[in-house]
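Q: Convert this sequence to structure tokens.
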Amino acid sequence: MNLLKWTKNLKPKFPAVIEKFWGKIMGKDVQENEEVGLVPSVNISEAEKAFEIAVAVPGLDKKDLKIEVEDGFLRISSEKQYEKEEREKNWLRREFGYACFQRVFQIPESADTEKVNASLKNGILTIKMAKKKGFENSVRRIEVK
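A:
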């Protein structure tokens, strides 16, 4: 049996192994967690006539995704379960899994919530939300004294 030497800050000399084993959860924000994958990556952009949100959802189908607009918020969520079974002469292998996530974004006042569409291609969910016509963003510069 080998013993591992711990440093003063209780971090092992082989952090990559421990981080992989614990999924980088201890002492870090879950959103940073690449191993567990609880929160999909998102890109948000604004063009002249619309807002666009691109969400990385590899392995999910249209039926696994739920997109809702309610009370000034856009909610993107998913819940997926799977079960796989293999049988041979004298053994059985059964695997199952469950994954879910939810992302919520506040919708800008200039967005038209009646004109929202979504598409899924190559594991990227793209949501486009048109801007309201005639809505001007009022930006006022404040002078520092």
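The CA atoms of residues 19 and 27 lie 10 Å apart.
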